[in-house]
Specification:
The chain has 336 residues and is mostly helical. The protein is built from 11 helices and 2 strands. A hairpin with a 2-residue loop joins β1 and β2.
Length: 336
């Protein structure tokens, strides 16, 4: 049962090939990463302030503070991680370059998805704003809505597509890699497996605390082969998922094919479970079980983003690229 931890391949001690020293670039991008971390940290008090302002509005629904905890935790952890990575870049640490490259690719992929879908979401949200009590007209005229959607789309493109592309271009450079290896010749934990495999390991490990926190926030409502499970059953299901992702990530980190198969089987089962559930139940039922205010649920329903069988389509759109990525990294695993 207690298998030995695989030895990390020692760093090559031979002379590095000719490269351009990118220490200045590591300094500049390190400072920028630090600033991004500070910006992410500002969102935590801003969320609290926004919630307090919303609670003071006339006819405002009761405040559900538990719903805010996941978002605040995400921004708080993101702020800490970016500050830590920024300092690592300032010191030209090889682990910082590897993690920032993984982070940048993840940032870019999510940014592309957001840039594609957000115009639809924002146009629906602005169109469903409550009418002006004095004029009887929507709070924003159609022309203003169009301008806001275009402006926000451009913002998302710059912040979530263009910026991470710059980070990828810099930290993916062989000169940056060689500079970090020269200034930080010590073997690091990020050297134990190829970066594409390490990226999936990190995402599976990130899912573990998320699953553990969900029961504490009342959000442990999960689709399970045609029904939504909540309460004690939903909490136990979250614990099972956390255990599966934790073990799969550890096996993958050791380049053990069992981790790959565990993730593949789990993803297939979870996808089939979700498709069966959303084929018979609307996602509004999940929101009700999570305790969201009915006014907020009604607003989500008006947008029509996840109504009907659309949630099934979103599940399939997420699963297919993920399975493709699984097939891509299989070549890096050890053959048992």
């Amino acid at each position: 049962m207690n298998e030995p931890i695989p030895e990390i391949t020692p760093v090559e001690t031979t002379a590095l090939p000719a490269y351009k020293n990118r220490s200045t670039g590591l300094l500049v991008f390190g400072i920028l990463t630090l600033l991004l971390g500070c910006l992410a940290g500002l969102f935590v008090p801003l969320m609290l302030f926004g919630q307090m302002m919303a609670a003071k509005a006339p006819n405002a629904p009761p405040v559900n503070h538990a719903v805010m905890l996941p978002g605040m935790a995400v921004y708080g952890l993101l702020a800490v991680a970016l500050v830590w990575l920024g300092i690592g870049s300032l010191k030209a640490r090889r682990w910082a370059r590897a993690l920032l490259l993984i982070f940048s690719w993840s940032w870019l992929i999510m940014g592309i998805c957001m840039t594609v879908f957000m115009p639809f979401v924002m146009s629906k949200a602005f169109a469903n704003l409550p009418p002006n009590a004095k004029t009887g007209q929507p709070a924003m005229p159609p022309g203003a809505i169009t301008g806001m959607v275009i402006g926000m789309t451009l913002f998302f493109f710059v912040a979530f597509v263009l910026v991470p592309t710059l980070w990828i271009f810099f930290y993916g450079s062989r000169h940056v890699k060689a500079t970090c290896e020269a200034r930080d010749p010590v073997t690091r934990w990020t050297d134990a497996c190829p970066l594409p495999v390490l990226a999936l390991c990190l995402w599976t490990w990130l899912a573990v605390p998320v699953m553990l926190v969900m029961p504490l926030t009342g959000m442990a409502v999960m689709p399970l082969f045609g029904v939504f499970v909540s309460g004690l059953t939903g909490s136990l299901f979250c614990l099972v998922i956390a255990a599966v992702w934790g073990m799969a990530g550890w096996w993958l980190y050791r380049l053990d094919a069992r981790g790959w198969w565990l993730i593949l089987i789990a993803m297939v089962l979870f996808t089939v479970s979700a498709l069966l559930t959303y084929a018979h139940h609307d996602i509004s039922e999940l929101y009700q079980l999570q305790g969201l205010p009915q006014a907020q649920i009604d607003q989500i329903q008006k947008m029509g983003l996840f109504t009907g069988n659309r949630m099934s389509w979103f599940t399939a759109l997420f699963t297919l690229p993920f399975l493709g990525y699984l097939l891509f990294i299989k070549k890096y695993l050890r053959k048992n």
